[in-house]
Amino acid sequence: MLTHLDSQGRANMVDVTEKAVTSREATAEALVRMLPETLQMIVSGGHPKGDVFAVARIAGIQAAKKTSDLIPLCHPLMLTGVKVELSAEGVDAVRITARCKLAGQTGVEMEALTAASIAALTIYDMCKAVDRGMVIESVRLLEKLGGKSGHYQVAGQ
Question: Which of 8, 27, 119, 145 qualifies as a FRET site for 57, CA 20 to 30 Å off?
């Protein structure tokens, strides 16, 4: 049985020693709502701090690789691929999609969610001087492939 509690009810990291190594992949997303002028500044490349999408992409990738340092009891993983995509969504939002892959004994959902979250926070950090009212929302798992629990996908995806 997989649990974060030991026989005395104390938190511990799940032992995945007996689990088979399988190909695993997870995709997560986040949305950052902002003023239309802020999005226009980002998309046009006119932000005084530089390419917001490039910096957020790198931050997301770095965060995925450091997830076990950020989330207690999360396994350190040797990711084989991390992809963070950013795009304008309508006139007032940025959609972030993060996909993580590996061949291992445990899933990569937390890595994908962390990548999307940190990319969103990076956008906020870079743009807060011009738009403090930005809102980070809809951080969620979109799809998970592999492992014992099989395939998961958000309805309508």
Answer: 145
